From TrEMBL:
It comes from Allgaiera indica. A zinc finger (CHC2-type) spans 43-67. The gene is dnaG. The keyword Nucleotidyltransferase applies. This is DNA primase. It comes from the Bacteria. Monomer. Interacts with DnaB. Keywords: DNA replication, DNA-binding, DNA-directed RNA polymerase, Magnesium, Metal-binding, Nucleotidyltransferase, Primosome, Transcription, Transferase, Zinc, Zinc-finger. Contains an N-terminal zinc-binding domain, a central core domain that contains the primase activity, and a C-terminal DnaB-binding domain. Belongs to the DnaG primase family. The lineage of its organism: Bacteria, Pseudomonadati, Pseudomonadota, Alphaproteobacteria, Rhodobacterales. RNA polymerase that catalyzes the synthesis of short RNA molecules used as primers for DNA polymerase during DNA replication. It catalyses: ssDNA + n NTP = ssDNA/pppN(pN)n-1 hybrid + (n-1) diphosphate.
Amino acid sequence: MSLPPGFLDELRGRLSLSQVVGRKVVWDMRKSNQGKGDFWAPCPFHQEKTASFHVDDRKGFYYCFGCHAKGDALSFVRETENVGFVEAVEILAREAGMPMPERDPQAQQKADRRSQLVEVMEQAVQYYRLQLKTGQGAAARDYLDRRKLSEAGRARFEIGFAPEGWQGLWDHLRGKGVEEALILEAGLAKASTKGKQPYDTFRNRIMFPIRDARGRAIAFGGRAMDPNDNAKYLNSPETPLFDKGRSLYNHGPAREGAGKGQTLIVAEGYMDVIALAEAGFTATVAPLGTAITEDQLRLLWRIAPEPVIALDGDTAGLRAAMRVIDVALPLLEAGNSLRFCLMPEGLDPDDLIQTQGAGAMQKLLDQAQPMVRLLWRRETEGRVFDSPERRAALDKSLRATLKKIADPSIRHHYGEEINVLRQDLFGRGREGARKPFQPWPRGQGRPGAKWQPPAVPMPGTKASYLATAGEAGAERLREALILATLITHPALVELFEHQLEELELIGQGHAALRHAILRHAGDADPANFRKKIATDAGEALETLFSLGHVNSAPPVLKTGDAELARMCVAEELAKLDARRGVRKEIEHAVEDLGGLADEGVTWRLGQAAEAMQRAGRSQLEDSGDLGEDRDALSKQLQSLIDGQVWVKRK
C-alpha cells in the first residue's frame, strides 16, 4: 500500500510511544522519569526481572539493553501483534483517530476478499460447534469425554464436529447466501472431478478451529472418527488465509500466557495443547501437521526467547526433535535458543497429565535439556568409539554440524560445551574408558627417544625467496608460476581448466589473469593467446612476467617443453592444495570445535603433514625452485602437532 507523504510522520506525532508500549509492559516507576519522557520496564520481547527496556518518548524510540530490540511505535506493534506493516499502520491510525488513506484498488480488493473469507470461516466454526451438540455428534462427544475434556474446555477451544454427509457444510453456507467461490477458496469444500456439486473437505471428524495471532479463524484441523481413515488428522489446504508452515495452533492465547511469565511449550498436536492449557500451561502451541519450519521458529522466538519443545517419548518423537535441531542451528542468535523436554516412553503430555497430574509435567519442564545436549546425544547414541578413526569420524561429523551455526560466538560456546561432554565420554578414567590422548611434553621427543635440539636453518634456506617472502608470499609466487606457465603453454589450459576455476587466488591481479585465460581457452597459438591476455589484463600481465622468479623458471623459458610445463602446473597446484589443506585442517581443529582434543585431531593433522611432504617430494628438481623450504614446512607442522595446537589455552 502506498501512503501519502507525511502520513507516517503525522501518525507518529499524534501518538505517545509510552502509551503504545504501556499496553504491553508495567513501567518501573522508580527508574522512570515521566517528566522527561524517560520510561523503563522489563522487556516484552524476552523474559527478565530487571527493567532493561527503555522508551524515549521525546524521540519516539525504544531500546532493550538485554536483547537489543529497538524501533518505533510501528515496529513495536508489528513485533508484539505479529502483523504486517499495513496492519500495524491501521491499528495505530485507529488509536490516533486518523482515517486511513484510500488504498490501491487492487490492494483494497484483496483485503476485502480476505475479510470475506474470514467471515465464511467464522460461519463454519459456528456450524461445526452446533453439529457437536446434535445426535450425529454423539460419538464425538463420547470420545471427548474419554479424553476428559470438559464442556468449558470444549467451549474455550471452540471444538466442533463435521458430520458424515458429503455436502452438509456446503448446503448450510449456500443457504446463508455465501458464494460458491468463497467456500472453495476458504478450503471448506472441494470441486468434484465427476461434474457433480462440490463436497465438504471435512467429514466425520472432530473439528479444531485454527486462529491466527489476532484471533481470526483461518483454518481447521480435523481428527477422524473412523479408525480406518487414511488420515488420522487432516488440516485445511493452503488458502489466502492459511499457510500451515507459518502458523501455530493456539498462537494468540500462548503469546498472552508467555507475556505473563509462563514457559512457552511446543507440543505435537491439538489434544496435547488443549490438555496442557487446561492444566494451567496456557503458553502452549503446536505446529500444524508438519515438522517445525524456520518461519514457525521465528514466530516462537517472537513469543519467548527459549521455547521448550515437548515431544512424545517414542522413536518418532525423538526423530522429530532431531529434525528441529537441524532447522534451528543456522538461526540461533544470542538469547534465542531451544530446550527439549522428552516425555516418558509411551506417554504424550496429555497422557502424563491425565495419569500423573500437572506437577509431573512441571517437573519435566524444569528438567528440560539445552539443545546442545540433545545434539550430542544424536551424534553419539548407539555408537562405539574404540579407535582413533572412529573418534576422528565423530569430530568430522560434529565439525560439519557446528558449521551450520552462523553466529561465531554461539558456535564457539557450543564447541566448548561439546568438549566437556566429550571429555566425560572419553576421559572418565574408570576401567574400560579411554583417557584423552596426551602427546609427550613440548620440547621432548617420544618416550624413550633421545632428546634432540632444534635444527638450525641451513644458509640456503634462510636466503631463499620463500623464506623471506613468508607463507602468503610463497603462495602468491606459486600462483604466479602456474599462471605464467599456462600463458606460455595455452594448450594446457583445457587440461587444468577445472582446477584453475576452483583455485583460491590471493595474488594481486591474479584473478584478472585467470579470467582472461579461461575466456580465451581454446586458442593454442602462444603468440595470439598472449596478445589476447595482454588486451584483457595488460598491467597484470606485465607485473607477472617482471618477477625474476617467474621469468627465469624452466617451464617459462623452455616454451617447447610441454611435458615439463604440465608437470610444473600439476605439482604447484598440488603444493598449494596441500599447504592450504593443512591450514584449513588446523583452523577446523582449533576453531570449529572450540578446542576438542583427542587422537582424532592429531591423526588428521598428521595426515595433512604427510600430504604436504608427498607434495614436496614430487617437486621439480632441475631448478631447485619452490622446494627448498619443504623440510622447514614439515618440521613447522610437526611442531604444531607436538605443541598440542588444538588444546584450548587458559
